[in-house]
Specification:
Elements lengths: L6 E5 L10 H13 L4 E7 L14 E5 L2 E6 L6 H10 L1 H12 L3 H7 L7 H9 L6 H10 L5 E4 L5 H10 L3 E3 L12 H6 L5 E4 L2 H11 L5 E4 L12 H7 L7 E4 L4 H4 L2 H12 L6 E4 L12 E5 L3 H9 L3 E4 L8 H8 L4 E4 L3 H9 L4 E4 L2 H13 L1 H18 L2 H17 L1
Parallel strand pairs: 1-2, 1-5, 2-4, 5-6, 6-7, 7-8, 9-10, 9-12, 10-11, 12-13, 13-14
Antiparallel strand pairs: 3-4
Helix pairs in contact: 2-5, 4-9, 6-7, 12-16
Length: 418
């Protein structure tokens, strides 16, 4: 395919091979593939640690895997100041979430598409957030006409809102919405009507978006994302390096309360219940320090992609305990490698994966069925084989890169037509 001279920009809060995050990986996979077809660059901040902020990377232009990366500095982060405004804007967020729970939000959104209540404080919170960069927003506003499209991830953070407000007519949003307080911000009701096209990861997320924003949600569809695979690291070397056992369950992601939830508590109860028959839990990823790691947990810290794949491939089951997912890349990686998956049934997206896959993925909703399901998956070999077969089929029918990139191209063409 001949490369177009049209310019495309991705906008994401962090970017780099050494960045551990779902939206950031999502962006990198799309950007690297699109770079073969368009003049592609990434607009991002100099932040590496999302909890502390600050300018870890040098501002300016660099190239990562063939993609031009343009970094902008952020101001010093003061979480106390941000929290003042977040607290002031909390009640409208809570009300919108409650209205959606009782299926009233779509109806109300017809009459109140933009929530003025809490809007000023919500915008002030964004201006004082960890990823707010005045220079980035000024660049986007001044250079939007240089690009055929701006592809922006994710709705949780400041660049999404300010790009929508300054360049929404050029914007393809990949919002990665989930049923959490942050997705119910008043500022998003103001942002979405400006966005030219919204590309969701799943039809579950799309339904959530329609409920949240009603008529404020313009043209939209499914784009989603695939996965990248690398050659796994040598298993014996990896096993020795991290002192891994023969059998174990696996968690991959940031080891923080937001992602881990009750996993540590439930796992501790599982160990008490099954004693010597309980398998260890290997947790792979950076540790935020706000999660208690009980006996039986092996924490690896940050690992290479090759090591991560080796650890996942040799696990008996991958557990995703998050309540807030718009897709779950690590789940797709496990399905691709024939690893059984167990997820938090309180996350609608993850629970819908279980239903749509025909039982390739199992879910739990409390400590009792967590313990029972984990024990059954690791001990019932016929069930494990069925989960593997169905999981692979589910993956191949829904997350093929050719299909995903074709959707993204069509979205770019739609935005170009104006």
């Amino acid at each position: 395919m001949k490369k177009s001279n049209k310019k495309i920009a991705f906008v994401v809060v962090r970017y780099g091979i050494d960045i551990n995050g779902g939206a950031e990986s999502h962006c990198r996979m799309l950007a690297e593939r699109l770079a073969a077809e368009y003049d592609t660059e990434v607009l991002t901040t100099c932040v590496k640690d999302y909890t502390k902020g600050g300018n870890y990377y040098e501002p300016g232009i660099s190239v990562i895997n063939g993609v031009r990366v343009r970094r902008f500095p952020v101001k010093p982060y003061n979480p106390e100041k941000e929290n003042v405004f977040l607290r002031r804007a909390r009640r409208p967020r809570s009300l919108r979430k409650r209205l959606n729970k009782y299926k009233l939000l779509p109806f109300i959104s017809k009459f109140v598409p933009i929530w003025q209540w809490g809007l000023k404080d919500d915008i002030s919170a964004l201006r004082n957030s960890v990823f707010y960069s005045e220079e980035m927003i000024a660049f986007i506003s001044g250079h939007k006409d240089d690009y055929a499209a701006l592809i922006v991830l994710t709705a949780d953070f400041a660049p999404f809102y300010f790009t929508a407000m300054t360049a929404g007519e050029k914007m393809i949003a990949i919002p990665t919405l989930h049923d959490a307080s942050v997705s119910y911000r008043s500022s998003l009701t103001q942002a979405f009507p400006h966005i030219k096209y919204v590309g969701f990861n799943t039809d579950t997320e799309q339904s959530l978006g329609k409920n949240m924003f009603g008529a404020g949600l313009k043209a939209n569809g499914i784009i989603s994302v695939g996965i990248e695979t690398c050659e796994p690291a040598q298993w014996e070397d990896t096993k020795k390096k991290f002192s891994l056992p023969e059998k174990y369950a696996c968690f991959v992601g940031r080891v923080c309360m937001e992602k881990v939830g009750k996993l540590s508590f439930y796992y501790d109860i599982y160990r008490q219940k099954y004693g010597k028959d309980a398998i260890p839990l290997v947790m792979v990823g950076g540790y935020a320090g706000d999660v208690k790691l009980p006996d039986g947990v092996i924490w690896t810290g940050f690992v290479s992609d090759e090591e991560k794949r080796a650890i996942m491939m040799h696990s008996d089951v991958l557990i995703n305990p998050s309540r807030f997912e718009s897709l779950s890349l690590v789940l797709l990686e496990a399905l691709n490698d024939n690893v059984p998956v167990m997820v938090n049934g309180h996350c609608k997206v993850l629970k819908d994966h279980c239903k749509k896959s025909g039982g390739a993925i199992k879910y739990y909703t409390n400590r009792r069925n967590f313990c029972r399901m984990l024990n059954k998956i690791v001990s019932d070999e016929p069930m494990r084989q069925k989960m593997k077969e169905k999981g692979r089929k589910y993956f191949e029918e829904n997350w093929v890169w050719d299909m995903i990139m074709d959707r993204l191209r069509r979205a770019i063409e739609f935005v170009e037509k104006g």
